[in-house]
Specification:
Layout: H1 7-20, E1 27-28, E2 39-40, E3 44-49, H2 57-67, E4 74-79, H3 85-93, E5 96-101, E6 107-109, H4 112-121, H5 126-143, H6 146-174
Helix pairs in contact: 2-3
Length: 175
């Protein structure tokens, strides 16, 4: 996937990644209320959050509850902006594999459960993933810094002024 912009694109990226992990029937669930499951497979379920803030514990609890009595299913969680400490603790105590993804679709294992899944299907190292995760975390902090937000607001204001000026010029041209 070239760029991930929408939640649906993030879900499709996660489904593709899961198929690469060996969950060959992984597919995105239908649009609408999904009951906490965005990608489903016979052997695994996943939730995907294309948020620009860290995921807290409640969405992980929702995923755990959505699995119900199908304890044979693996649980995977994909987030764009990482996880709060409470979420990581909960995931570790409930064997939920945590992954993060970036705008280009690269996916990184965050905890031991996720790394274990990757190790069974590829030659990635935990050190490599930890370094990548640190870069993603810094990029998220940079994106959400006061300076970056102010710059984006100024850019939006300039664009709004340009659009308004274009509209005024068009109306004058109609006279």
């Amino acid at each position: 996937m070239d760029q991930i912009g929408t939640a649906r694109e993030a879900e499709q990226n996660a489904a593709s990644f899961m198929r690469g992990l060996g969950f060959r029937d992984a597919a995105v669930t239908a649009n609408g209320a999904d009951g906490g499951i965005d990608v489903s497979s016979l052997d695994a379920i996943a939730q995907v959050k294309n948020w620009f803030k860290p995921v807290g514990r409640p969405p992980l609890q929702q995923l755990f509850g959505a699995r119900g009595n199908r304890s044979n299913q693996k649980m995977l969680f994909f987030a764009r902006s990482g996880y709060a400490a409470t979420a990581r603790t909960y995931a570790d105590s409930h064997a939920i594999a945590l992954f993060i993804f970036d705008h280009a679709g690269s996916i990184t294992a965050i905890n031991d459960s996720a790394q274990s899944m990757k190790n069974t299907s590829s030659g990635y190292s935990l050190a490599e993933d930890v370094a990548t995760a640190a870069r993603y975390a810094q990029a998220a902090r940079d994106y959400n810094s006061k300076e970056s937000i102010a710059a984006r607001a100024a850019q939006a204001k300039r664009r709004a002024c340009e659009v308004q000026a274009e509209g005024t010029a068009a109306r004058i041209g109609d006279i």
